[in-house]
Amino acid sequence: MGRIKTWDELTICDNFLFLKVMQNKRICKKLIEKILGIRILRISYPVTEKSIDIRYDSKSVRLDVFVEDNAGTLYDIEMQTSDGDTPDELPKRARYYQAMMDMDVLNKSEYYTKLRKSFVIFICTFDPFGAGKSIYTFRETCQEDPSLLMGDETTKIFLNSQGNRDGLDPDITAFLDYVNGQAAKGRFAKSIEKEVQKVREHKETRWEYMTLAMELKKQRNEGHAEGRAEGRAEGEACFADLMAALFNDGRAEDAKRAASDVAYRNALFHEYHMDGRS
């Protein structure tokens, strides 16, 4: 887990700032239009940072930027900055987000034929598939005839800020360059940069982030303290087990030495096939 950034260190790649910028309807609408090559009349935000809980015992999912357009199409836009996951982790996360969006509609007593057309869009600061493309678009197709779409109206799109820009829309090129840390170029990227600065200057948003950062630090410190306490308890229990085993085997002198000699104690743990956690 990385260090929690200060307010001044945040960039468009950080979820908190990205979410705030995408609350600008004009920018969010334009980004969707440019990625998909479509025109949208208007968009709305059913909720901010939508959390979906299907059952009390299921894993919930938080959708960072959850948008609905005038035609009822749903869009989930996520910023992804970590490429340390397993190769199938990100695609399966997209699959899970898609499923949760569908289940959320069904939970509202809609029949399955009423499921909405939907897009899951991941903006990545790394190449998720290693093919060098700036945009990867996935739809359900027939294995025997790739030109035949299944027609479930679901699409998963992965943008890669590290990809080849050949043939890419100029505004998307400038956006990905900006995500990649370069200076904003062109009207669209500069409008995003302007919104970033506007968010930065908003005192209430700054305080919101600082409060969140303090809570995250508190939770992390509590987790570390709990882990250290558990480690000590496990170590003490293993040491007690080792002492009992040595005395049972008539090795009192070894027990006495192990109490003060860490290296010797570890050797005995190994001999007795114990995890001493020393």
What does this entry look like structurally?
The chain is an alpha/beta fold. The protein has 2 domains: 7-201; 215-271, no CATH class. Helices cover 45% and strands 14% of the residues. It has 8 helices and 8 strands. The protein has helices spanning 15-22, 25-36, 89-106, 170-179, 186-200, 203-248, 252-258, 262-271, and strands spanning 43-44, 50-52, 61-63, 65-69, 74-80, 118-124, 135-138, 154-160. The strands form 2 sheets. A 6-stranded mixed beta sheet has the order 1-4-5-6-8-7, with helices on both faces. Helix 3 (89-106) links the parallel strand 5 and strand 6 (118-124). Helix 1 crosses helix 5 and helix 4 runs parallel beside helix 5 (186-200). The protein is elongated, with a radius of gyration of 26 Å. Mean pLDDT is 83; it is low at 52-60.
Summarize the structure.
The chain has helices spanning 15-22, 25-36, 89-106, 170-179, 186-200, 203-248, 252-258, 262-271; strands spanning 43-44, 50-52, 61-63, 65-69, 74-80, 118-124, 135-138, 154-160. It is of the alpha/beta class and 278 residues long.
